[in-house]
Hints:
The protein has strands spanning about 5-10, 15, 20, 25-30, 35, 40, 45, 60, 65, 70, 75, 80-85, 90, 95, 105, 110-115. The chain is mostly beta strands. The strands form four sheets. Strands 2-5-10-13-15-16 form a six-stranded mixed β-sheet, with no helix packed on it. A four-stranded parallel β-sheet has the order 1-4-9-12, with no helix packed on it. A four-stranded parallel β-sheet has the order 3-6-11-14, with no helix packed on it. β15 (about 105) and β16 form a beta hairpin. The protein is globular.
Amino acid sequence: xxxxxxxxxxxxxxxxxxxxxxxxxxxxxxxxxxxxxxxxxxxxxxxxxxxxxxxxxxxxxxxxxxxxxxxxxxxxxxxxxxxxxxxxxxxxxxxxxxxxxxxxxxxxxxxxxxxxxxx
Length: 119
């Protein structure tokens, strides 16, 4: 494997012990705050019961963090997820599905618990 590209737009801050894996193309938008111990990946292992896990190919799925997002401490953004602009991800949330713009998500798996907008 190889050739993955990670693009982090200007103004984004990333705290300590953050783990980002880009096997394909992973994009993090401008002016995001990524707290400590966050995991973001665009790939996962395939799994077939009759073959060793180390010999199975990676599944690469586009993963994107929109502009002005806040990702709380210990959160996990799983492969294939797209976070819309202005999202807030709660501490220790595990995001397994796309999140709409301005949504606030929390839990395992993460669910929308509100919206971060004036309407």
